[in-house]
Design goal:
mainly alpha
Amino acid sequence: MDTMPLDEEPRRIDQLLAHYSLSHQHPVNERIHFLAVPLIMLTLIGLMFEIHPAVAYVFLAASMVYYLRLSLVFSAVMAIWTALMLMVVFAMGEHRLLICVSVFVGAWVLQFIGHKVEGQKPSFFEDVQYLWVGPLFVLRPLLLRFKLTW
């Protein structure tokens, strides 16, 4: 699982993932996050798209710049994941707002239940950038399964 040589300082991405992991140790909380984080990401895109498609695209472009600054591998995976989510947002059609509001609220309720079980506050209470680290935390096991390092 080590993604860096032993003699180097931890990279920013590794520091962020390690810190995020500290408040996501309980298996129940972890499973909830693996479900809720993608749903929150999907519905956030959908809600922004409802405001105006440009709002969603600007947010996603800025997010991609953030991910690119952290890791080329993660940014590539996030670009693919984002494209898939945009397809789902388009497929929601005229029901997009109702679906997104309902699922967004439900997914956040699950997140807070997970953190209650964990006994830890969400990482983004300390630093808002952890809202962008959550999807990387969810993707990390997939990358490790395919022996991809970031």
